[in-house]
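Something for you to look into today, if you have time. Just paste the record in under my message, thanks.
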Amino acid sequence: MKAASPFVANKMETRYVDNDEDNYSDASSSLAPNGSVVSTVPDRHGFLGGTQYLNESKHMISANKTIERERKWLNMTANWDKQMIRSFKKVQNRCRKGIPQSIRPRAWLYLTKANKLLDQKKNLYFKLCDQPGDRKWIEDIRKDLHRQFPYHEMFVDQDGTGQKELFNVLKAYTILNPVIGYCQAQAPIAAFLLMHMPAEQAFWCFVAICDDYLSDYYSPGMETLIRDGNILFALLKEREPKIYKLLKKQSIDPIMYMTEWFLCAFTRTLPWPTLLRFWDIFLFDGVKTFFKMGLIMIKISLPEKSYSDLKKRFPTMCETLEALRNPPLHMLEEERIIKKLILLDIPEDTFKYYHMQQTSLRRKTKETKKIRETDVF
């Protein structure tokens, strides 16, 4: 994200673990002009190159352990509603351990309650696909199709099934929810879901995430995103006062570095194995997971022990924003970051307090603005 987010500047106004042991030799790969590995054989996640490409598995779980976890998840989803009532903590713990790759599509459907939407609105997705849609949204969607995971085997071909399905999912949503329509930041989320499940299932998961988990994030004005950015900043002041002081002194507003994180649900930020584990937790715990990951991202991007050290290493806004845009990849490694995410405890009362605080400030600001407008006349 540059000084002005591409989502803010261009669109808002218009509005990794699988445990196969696949290893590929150098003979099956080459270098792209930007230095990324481009393979003629996809890695175990379907990537042909780019920063998400993985040469080999770093974390392997035995076949017996994988089968055991799969069996437990199949049993849970067979009696999902009862499990969520009687064994809520058990389900949470299993999400934190990581959902088996083979079960992930089914588990995500149940976690988002998209399975119920799928049952209640049978064939609606295909009917929406058959409709022409609003020309303005159609043009915006088409411009963004090739930008979503361009090194993944699903989306590498402009005329391939992946880009066609992505177009249909995004178009169908604009018809289902014309008030929101389309936002550029929705595209990587839809593409991410399509990598894991059939288009109809991906669509209803997408609807659940946009309308429930990220409610109002894609509305004009970005009021909800700005509010949550301010909540993140308040949490930073509480947890990391030195970093907070630096950002405050340099007039770096949260919207300048957390927009892509929150709007794209970290799909453009985290390494693939970490992203998969993050989503397993996010779809259970909800958007508060964003704040926890946001705090972790800021901490590892600006890792100094004292305020004077921070000032020396990040003397201006330019250096600070560059660091926040490019966190060290080795610090985002799956086991390391997921452990930090689970251990970071932010009480629900704290979220409620800052939410009420920001809502109150927002209301006062609007009332003050109305008074000033009245005085003009």
User: Anything to note?
Assistant: Confidence is low (pLDDT under 50) at residues 1-35. Residues 16 and 273 are 2 Å apart (CA to CA). The first strand starts at residue 29 and ends at 31.
